Amino acid sequence: MNAARLLEHFERIAEAPNAIPRLRKFILDLAVRGKLVEQDSNDEPASELLRKIKNEKDRLVKIRCIKKARSINKLQDEDIPYDLPHGWKWSQLSEIGVISPRNDIDDKREIAFVPMKMIPAEYGVKHDAEIKLWSEIKTGFTHFAEGDVALAKITPCFENGKSTVFSKLPGGFGAGTTELHVVRPFFVSQNYVLIYLKSPQFIGTGIPKMTGTAGQKRVSTEYFSNSPFPLPPLTEQHRIVAKVDELMALCDRLEATQAKRESRRNRLATASLKRIGQPEAVGNGEEFQGNVRFHLHHLPRLTTRPEHVKELRQTILNLAVRGKLVPQDPNDRVKKIDIIRLVKGERKARGFPLEISSGSFSSFGVDVDSVNIPISWELMKLSEIVLAVVDCPHSTPSWADSGAICVRTSQFKPGFLDLSNSRYVSIETYRERIQRIEPQEDDILYSREGGILGVACRVPKQVNLCLGQRMLLLRSTSVCLATYIEIVLNSPFINSLAQKQTTGGAAPRINVSLVKSYPIPLPPLAEQNQIVAKVDELMNLCDQLEVQLATSQRRRSRLLEATLCEALGVTCMPVARPTRPTPSPVLSAPPRSESPFEVQSLRLVDTPKAAVQGSLVEQPKSPTTSPRAAGNDIPGAILAQMQPGQDYSRAQLVDALGLSVYEWNMAIRELKESGRVVQTGERRGAKYQVA
């Protein structure tokens, strides 16, 4: 693998989830499988290296420098995870070194002390150390010396890959956390041992074998000492370490490039949304419409992660409550005095108190005249436009296996009540909890405490439920749609006010009286209906964007390994075979329109060419130009192209069938594993024959 080759493929893999971390793991995996550097037949084989190690250990035992090790359980055929290249040998750490070595040095000597926090999880990062007297740390800690290799054995440090080669230790010796396994290797590259300890094979196999209680699980000494260790010739070990160092440095550069690009894109997306949502640009003027068109035109590039869609949703809600989403009718205006009169009439007719006590806008630091809303709107307190604001019972529900639903704030999503994981109370408890008010369809539930403070959703149709804790219920009137109130309560405008007024520290909450005083930008009823309809359309678009992003991420994940195989020059990879990808729907840029928020101008289309920058989806070639297999039986199509006794290169078969890299890698792996095709040669020189 070389830098130029990977850079050529980087744009295709960079958008895959965790692309660079997965690339790092892939490099380590290939290193210990013998697929990262070429083998040299002139290298002294690993079997000879093992003989030298045994002789050295025998010599040290004889002069009493080390203790004679206990007999090693030899590896059985079922212990071997994969085949090794010629010249390699399966071994064990207990065979190539000393496990848990001990130090015998002067008490007054200053040496290194390494706690767990100073042991890195990343390859290529050096450990840190403190300096202490040996007398202070010689008991109760793990011993090690210059050149020893350590592995963190406790969860989650083991899973995270915490391991290190001890180097440049003050005094040449050290001690550290007791949660370490240590090996002192002989005639084996310490950095190669480190690569092995950080490899996905070693960590992945060790995780299910950890023992202990949750949070205190550990990797056993047996697993550390006697797991299969792939031992290459010594000179090849040095080549492997050099290549891993080179590729990890390349990953660092790629990661920096990706971070820079993401930062630039995030700044552009944030600035674009800010221009659209800034409060001073009231109305649908030409400048505002231009800002909207700019964002929609670049939406495929600005919306590449779920958090971008979340920001877009917040912008839509912000525009909705500031009167920027639909045009105003100059002949339709809200009059505060009429609203208050109508609401009081409804309260009287339906048996609710005529007045709802509340504070003033000044509680939020809001000046009515400073809130930029259309002149046909009014800024009113929440308590002035609803029938009731009712707090929940201040008691923990007595849960039951069945009965009536009692909702929890964890079920609240902005604009949606998730009843898929409901809990129940008895009918008797239900009756107790609805004494203040019985929830009905389209009542608004609002979370006012805890980690999800400030989320509003409505009670769905044909559902009987009661209130749990940390929530309010609001019932709308004829002057204001419940759906519009839900939009306002979920908007950044209200959320920012609520966050400033929370109390309670670790368990934040907002007082009921403050909720009643929320300043609600109120448009005429007809405009409310238009706003709700437009928000629904735009939120549906956001739903489509999220589905597309999730689909693209799954496809990119499946294609990442295939792309890496191509960049690394290997023809197989140790991953499960996914299904063949299909063309991905991508966002087309909207044409210029008089309305800045025409949903139909931003649509999902199928295209034979990836239109989103950084897309990893390889599109299938046209069936009219190459003999593709019926039913997508690509392995069968490859066999049909091959004649017994004849060698074929990958290029011949790929070109003949019009296959993508992904399709080739998956199909040839299946054919080789089933024994229908045999491979001769490696990498670019590989040839294939019918078995």
Strand order of the largest sheet: 2-9-6-7
Estimated radius of gyration: 33 Å
Largest sheet: 4 strands, antiparallel
Mean pLDDT: 83
Low-pLDDT runs of 5+ residues are 572-596, 599-631
Strand content: 5-15%
Question: How many strands appear in the DSSP assignment?
Answer: 27
Number of helices: 21
User: What structural class do helix, strand and pairing data support?
Assistant: alpha+beta
Q: Which outline best applies? A: elongated
Into how many domains do the coordinates divide? 4
Distance between the termini: 30 Å
List the helices and strands and how they pair.
Elements: H1 3-13, H2 19-33, H3 46-62, E1 89-91, H4 93-96, E2 97-99, E3 110-114, E4 130-133, H5 134-137, E5 142-145, E6 149-152, E7 163-165, E8 173-176, E9 180-185, H6 190-198, H7 200-206, H8 221-226, E10 229-231, H9 234-277, H10 286-297, H11 299-302, H12 306-321, H13 336-350, E11 378-381, E12 386-391, E13 399-400, E14 404-407, E15 412-413, E16 416-417, E17 423-425, H14 427-433, E18 444-447, E19 456-458, E20 465-467, E21 471-476, H15 482-490, H16 492-500, H17 512-516, E22 519-522, H18 525-568, E23 585-587, E24 604-606, H19 634-641, E25 648-649, H20 650-657, H21 661-673, E26 677-680, E27 687-690
Parallel strand pairs: 3-8, 14-20
Antiparallel strand pairs: 1-10, 2-9, 3-4, 5-8, 6-7, 6-9, 11-22, 12-21, 13-17, 14-17, 15-16, 18-19, 18-21, 23-24, 25-27, 26-27
Helix pairs in contact: 1-18, 2-6, 2-9, 9-10, 9-12, 12-18, 18-21
